[in-house]
Amino acid sequence: MLTGMSDAHYLVGLELRGRRVVVVGAGSVAQRRLPRLIRTGARIDVIAPEATPAVEGMAGAGEIRWHRRPYAEGDLRDAWYAIACTNDPSVNEAVSAEAEHRRVFCVRADAGTQGSAVTPATGEFEGLMIGVLAGGHPLRSAAVRDGIVEALREGRAPADRPPAAERSGMGKVVLVGGGPGDPELITVAGRRLLASADVVVADRLAPRELLDELSPRVEVVDAAKIPYGRAAAQEFINATLIDRAKAGKTVVRLKGGDPYLFGRGYEEVLACAQAGVPVSVVPGVTSAFAVPALADVPVTHRGVAHEVVVVSGHVGPDDPASLVDWDALAALRGTIVLLMGVERAGQFADVLLAGGRADDTPAAVIQEGSTSRQRIVRTTLGSLADDIARAGIRPPAIIVIGPVAGLYAQRAQDVG
Question: Is 203 a catalytic residue?
Fold first, then answer.
């Protein structure tokens, strides 16, 4: 770890696994900080009357406990670490005061020097975690961190770039595919663009840990879409991209997987083009193929599958809005990769069985693939819906149907 010039802080790594951490506030700051805290294995209590969609999604997934109410004295009891990140300085001051009384180290996000701890600007490179402190100057620590990480990744320092406030004229929008979830699976170009962004508009499925690496000067706009729940309207997202770019800013639209695979990416490209905003795309590693691969399911295999069909399951097979020819899919012998299909898995299985697919066709379901929360259910087409329900599988998850999903058993037998 690397420190700044200040002698007031002692840089240290905390072992938080299984220990209680309290985060007061559930806005954009919490959204940035929570993913890394979740990765530590801490028991996280978030206290806030309202939350961003992304934080709400973490609570819905059971990664954090969200207490939907204002902070109250005593909330830090038995805590090991606390973060005060509300938009009310008086609440943050009260949290910091209780932390001092209880001897709990506390980060005060709105006034870093007034807390008993300071969050360093952190980055990761090939197993190294780099932390930079700059005596309470977060912009400086983030800039130094970015320079170090970029130099390690690229073998050179990034070019100096003036802040958005000092630039004039039209900015630009870049759609960046973030990959299936693991922050290491974003492309080199995607990482470089994030480091130069003024605004990041992030999906719920984008690699969350990358947000914590952003400079404090970067505006993060939550465009999280929670399945069957609250979601940012596409019109709002389009307007945000266009407005920020017209203000002269570099806007990165960070998406999960690849922007053009069921990601509404081209809708955003068209909206920007129609508004006269320069827009480009950085492809991403698609979860449709990467997640099965990480679960030992090759979507093709010589002599087993010569075709792969990626299908959206956001509407049922009988829905008038469906554009999928399910009878044709049932007649194929290759691989079906079904995205967004967990809630209607039984309907999709039934229509494929009715169309001729065998009841014992192998299937695999991978929830939150490539992340520390990855879960795999191996089953058959006939048992798909029951096994998903029995295992408590929740979105996001990918369903693979076809003979390739049964190759894992052959590998296990060979290894044994």
Answer: yes
